[in-house]
Write a structure and sequence with these properties.
There is one protein chain. By secondary structure, the protein is of the alpha/beta class. It has helices at residues 18-33, 46-50, 59-62, 67-72, 74-91, 102-114, 134-141, 150-158; strands at 9-15, 38-44, 54-58, 95-99, 119-122, 144-147, 163-165. The chain is globular and about 40 Å long. The two termini are 19 Å apart.
Length: 167
């Protein structure tokens, strides 16, 4: 891991769904176990907070499905989105790690990429099954895809996306 200074790696993590929060939590636990100094902030869950993660929004509050639910929670989602952007501008993370949650994360990736932050995406949206045209967005705004399934590597490589299988 490259660090912004000798001691601490700064990372913005967006894990706004139960499953992605679990993956992010495991990353934080691993980094802590290995003695890495990480300043991690973003969207997560209360368990991540116990590991030193600074929550600007909680997965439980943001994991909404369907147009009606999104509209009902829009003000909160909008507020968290811009809190992430503002905190990124202030903290200057070494890396932005987005997990799943594509409708939110794609917008955030576009905004933060334009500000010069490296964008990594972990847990790919299932674009090989539907909305394949999203791969062009990923190629333009995502620096590296970290995928769970081996077949995803071939799919992304076919479109020239920098991809790594992490399982």
């Amino acid at each position: 891991m490259k660090t912004s200074n000798a001691d601490t790696f700064k990372i913005l993590i967006v894990a706004a769904e139960a499953s992605s929060s679990l993956y992010a939590q495991r990353l934080l636990e691993d980094w802590k176990k290995r003695g890495l100094k990480v300043d991690a902030f973003g969207i997560g869950n209360k368990k991540m907070e116990t590991l030193g993660f600074r929550c600007l929004g909680y997965a439980e509050d943001l994991a909404v499905v369907g147009l009606v639910e999104v509209l009902k929670h829009f003000k909160k989602i909008y507020k968290v989105f811009y809190a992430l952007v503002n905190e990124a501008e202030k903290v200057k993370p070494d890396l932005v790690l987005l997990l799943d949650y594509p409708d939110f994360n794609f917008r955030l990736a576009k905004k933060l990429k334009k500000k010069g932050f490296p964008i990594y995406y972990y847990i790919s949206p299932q674009i090989w099954a539907w909305r394949q045209s999203r791969v062009y967005f990923i190629k333009k705004y995502i620096d590296k895809m970290l995928v769970l399934f081996p077949f995803e590597v071939d799919f992304y490589k076919k479109f020239g996306v920098d991809v790594v299988f992490v399982g």
